[in-house]
Amino acid sequence: MKKIKIILGIITALILAFFLTGLVVQEVVYTNEVTVNKPVKEVFSDFQNVELMKQWMPEVKSIETLEEKPNKVGSTYKVVVENQGKLVTMTEEVLAFKENEKLTFHFDAENMLKTDDYVFTSEGNTTKIVQTTTCTSESYVMSCLFPYFKGALKKMSQQYLDEFKKASETHN
């Protein structure tokens, strides 16, 4: 009986810690970077190339323009991605666009709200891309999960940047 009380106490403490996570951590923020061996103008163009995107983000199945704004800011798109064999639809909005310098996208994928801010810096004949990502959720349970998956989310974003580097450097 004493062992059962100890086990139940430990389980209760873990559940309580999990749900307190959502109160303490409101968002998850991480940064990744990559240096591409091409000038910034070409890298910025490659980054927006939907056909090239299929090479470095093969999960993206389609991108449909919902509304296109003249300066890009405020433009919205319907993006369909494949996640573990299941198609997921999300909305993408351009929050910032500064030619050859900055792109910021906001994604609404049901319970995950994600903002990716990309800064492009010219370093001679190479380009440094710094990505800062913020993840939040409208779902309390989901917001409790994000801190525990921060490492996996960061790793996945870095893999995408590394794949973009390869695709961009081989693209003419």
UniProtKB/TrEMBL annotation:
Parts forming coiled coils: none
InterPro entries registered for this protein in UniProt: Polyketide_cyclase/dehydratase, START-like_dom_sf
Lineage: superkingdom: Bacteria
Pfam families associated with the record: Polyketide_cyc2
CDD domains assigned: SRPBCC (cd07812)
Protein name: Polyketide cyclase/dehydrase/lipid transport protein
Organism: Tenacibaculum lutimaris
